[in-house]
Amino acid sequence: MRFLGIFVSLCLGALVLPASASVLTVSQNSSEVVRLESEAATVIVGNPMIADVVVLDGNLLIVQGRLFGTTNVIALNAGGEAIANIQVTVGAEQHLALSLYRGADRVTYACPGNCVQVYQPGDDPDRANSIFSQDRQLQNLSSWPLGLETQDDEE
User: For the whole model, what pTM was predicted?
Assistant: First the structure.
């Protein structure tokens, strides 16, 4: 009887598991292609400050790493059922990361060539605010429309 209860629990549990759960690691300011098994009608990003998603067609997603951290991306079909739940971790490759400590304050750098300051949870909050401010400025610059006219062009 106990075996039957365990079997029924396993069968019912299989019905509520996400259709496609996976893990994706993306470097900051890099992109990865994700192909879904079926067409997504809706794509939800848990924290768009960490990762952004562009849907090229219903089956093809481009995931871009923005800030270091972990979030998730959920894809739903037209019926509202989850077809994918992807855990996305944005970070630097471990052999390229450097942490400097000044007492209790920590500052983290990514060093793919020249070292640049990045944010990791636990870093000095004042420096983290500076990084977030710079990231917002970069996002604003990248969203400007192309082909802006200068004052010289209008004469």
Answer: 0.54
